[in-house]
Amino acid sequence: MSNIGKSGWAARLRDACAAEVIDCDQLLASRLFPQQDEAPDLRRLATWLGQPGDACYPHNSARLLAAEREVMRQVLARLQARDAGTPCVIDTGGSVIHAGADVLQALRRQTCVIHLQATPAQREQLYARYLAEPKPLIWGDAWQPRPGESVSDARRRCYPLLLEAREQAYADLAELTLPADLLERPESLGVLLDRVGAGPGT
After folding, report:
1. Structural domains in the chain?
2. DSSP output for 28-46
3. Phi, psi for residue 87 in degrees, rounded to 5
4. Bridge partners of 115?
5. Least confident of 94-98, 145-149, 168-172, 179-183
6. Could you tell me the maximum CA-CA distance found in the chain, to the nearest angstrom?
7. Taking a C-beta distance cutoff of 8 angstroms, is the pair 19, 89 a contact?
8. What is the pTM of this model?
9. How many CA atoms lie within 13 A of 77 on its CB side?
10. Rg (CA), the chain
């Protein structure tokens, strides 16, 4: 999920292993807004996308999903063409889970997919941060407003449903699941490298 620590892990691996980092959020923003000299940050992207209940959301969310799929296809092609001896970290966006079964299967074949699993405390933090400053978000089937319910109330009620659905989808995709709060521990980098080196299924 957004704010779970993916970019923090990517930066640590870049510094520790001289890894190349592919930032999928930046690639996505550049694809959606090619006319801009600098790709918009996630706050501006969230404003553009809108939220369920906004008139712009159905159209813009469809555009975002199409762009996410194309970005991931480009990333996978880039992986096939690069030097296999150089470490590479793909810092995906949370909506990568909607990129299509073929893309996700290829991602599993070409990489070790790691799921950073939120602790209960982190879920509460994610919820609070989303309400305070919404990030670009594809809701999928988790958006289930009730008759007569205000949009703001529906967002508050449905966001925990979204977190639960995403956690399961990420776990199903991943070869490794690690607690997201591992990043806060001194031994975190060594643990991650040991687990990745051990290969799938560990």
Report:
1. 6-198 (3.40.50.300)
2. HHHHH-TTSSS---HHHHH
3. -60, 145
4. 177
5. 179-183
6. 57
7. yes
8. 0.84
9. 6
10. 17
**Who contacts 63 (Cβ-Cβ below 8 Å, separation ≥6)?**
32
Q: Rounded to whole angstroms, how far apart are CA atoms 12 and 5?
A: 11
Average pLDDT score over residue span 101-114: 93
Token pair for 131? 């309400």
What pLDDT digit, counting tens, does each position of 60-89 carry? 999 999 999 999 999 999 998 887 778 899
The overall average pLDDT reported for the chain is 86
Packing angle between helix 24-32 and helix 42-49, nearest 10 degrees? Answer: 50
Single-letter amino acid code for the residue at 81: A
**Token pair 């706050």 in the structure block, residue:** 43
- Average pLDDT in the 135-160 region? 90
